[in-house]
């Protein structure tokens, strides 16, 4: 299964990807996670990406495309992969299509998780994650259990200000990839409002 999860920031891509990769036994490739790891490790890539990420801007296409093409050529991606947060621009979608074509493989599905803009800021500013397990929480709807409450962290770009910039970028840069995949007959739209369990059921139904 070669698939892509698309949706605005806070749609639940990371939460759903973590669940779906267990079912389909494919690697979870999150460009946001890869870039955050590079920033943390202080690599050249991380230094390039940091300024863009903390301001809620997109990292330039040439940086991200190279990183993903290299990653999906790894042996663990032979049977498939779940892309989360990539592609985020039309040139990224086109570069991915070319790379897959050259490798003689094709995408199976693109799932668009739809959540209204009005709900996004609350999801983002109240998002916390456990650095040890990667588990994602929401301070009101899915609070971290007391034994880990001390260690959960907030992403640097999960402020109200950066959230609004990321949302604007989503509409201007990422939404245009939707018709690209719709025209290819690959797109499934899923309502992203509700508990993670409910959304997971909807995604699996759409994929089936
Ligand atoms: P995410 O964890 O998917 O919300 O990504 C966090 C941040 O990483 C984004 O706001 C961008 O700055 C950067 N980023 C992640 N994926 C991409 C991508 N495909 N293209 C450009 N920037 C990206």
What does this structure look like?
The chain is α/β, with parallel strands linked by helices. It has one domain: P-loop containing nucleotide triphosphate hydrolases (Rossmann fold, 3-Layer(aba) Sandwich). It contains 9 helices and 7 strands. The protein has helices at 13-24, 31-41, 44-54, 61-72, 90-103, 117-125, 160-174, 177-183, 196-207, and strands at 2-6, 28-30, 81-84, 109-114, 127-129, 136-138, 187-191. The strands form 2 sheets. Strands 2-3-1-4-7 form a 5-stranded parallel sheet, sandwiched between helices. Strand 5 and strand 6 (136-138) form a beta hairpin. Helix 2 packs across helix 3, helix 4 packs parallel to helix 5 (90-103) and helix 6 packs across helix 7 (160-174). The radius of gyration is 16 Å and the shape is globular. It starts with a strand and ends with a helix. The mean pLDDT is 95.
Biggest β-sheet, characterized? 5 strands, parallel
Instruction: Identify the overall geometry.
Output: globular
Helical stretch tally: 9
CATH domain class name: Alpha Beta
- Provide mean pLDDT, rounded: 95
| Radius of gyration using CA atoms only | 16 Å
Could you please say which CATH topology applies here? Rossmann fold
* Strand tally: 7
Total of domains: 1
Structural class: alpha/beta
Instruction: Report how far apart the termini are.
Output: 12 Å
| CATH superfamily caption | P-loop containing nucleotide triphosphate hydrolases
The H-and-E topology, N to C, reads as EHEHHHEHEHEEHHEH
Query: What proportion of the residues is helical, as a percent range?
Result: 40-55%
Largest sheet: spatial strand order = 2-3-1-4-7
Residues in β-strands, percent: 5-15%
Tell me which CATH architecture applies here: 3-Layer(aba) Sandwich
Poorly predicted regions: none
What hetero molecules are in the model?
A: adenosine monophosphate
């Amino acid at each position: 299964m070669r698939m892509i999860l698309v949706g605005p920031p806070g749609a639940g891509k990371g939460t759903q990807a973590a669940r779906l990769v267990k079912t389909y036994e494919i690697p979870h490739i999150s460009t946001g996670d890869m870039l955050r790891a590079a920033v943390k490790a202080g690599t050249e890539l991380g230094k390039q990406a940091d300024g863009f990420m903390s301001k809620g801007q997109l990292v330039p296409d040439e940086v991200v495309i190279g990183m993903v093409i290299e990653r999906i050529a790894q042996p663990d991606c032979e049977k498939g992969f779940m892309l989360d947060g990539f592609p985020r621009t039309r040139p990224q979608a086109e570069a991915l299509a070319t790379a897959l074509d050259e490798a003689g493989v094709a995408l199976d599905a693109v799932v668009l998780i739809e959540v209204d803009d009005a709900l996004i800021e609350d999801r983002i500013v109240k998002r916390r994650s456990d650095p040890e397990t990667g588990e994602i929480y929401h301070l009101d709807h899915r609070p971290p259990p007391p034994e880990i409450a001390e260690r959960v962290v907030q992403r640097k770009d999960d402020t109200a200000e950066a959230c609004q910039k990321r949302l604007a970028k989503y509409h201007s840069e990422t939404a245009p990839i939707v018709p690209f995949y719709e025209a290819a007959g690959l797109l499934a739209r899923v309502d992203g409002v509700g508990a993670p369990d409910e959304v997971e059921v909807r995604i699996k139904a759409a994929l089936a």
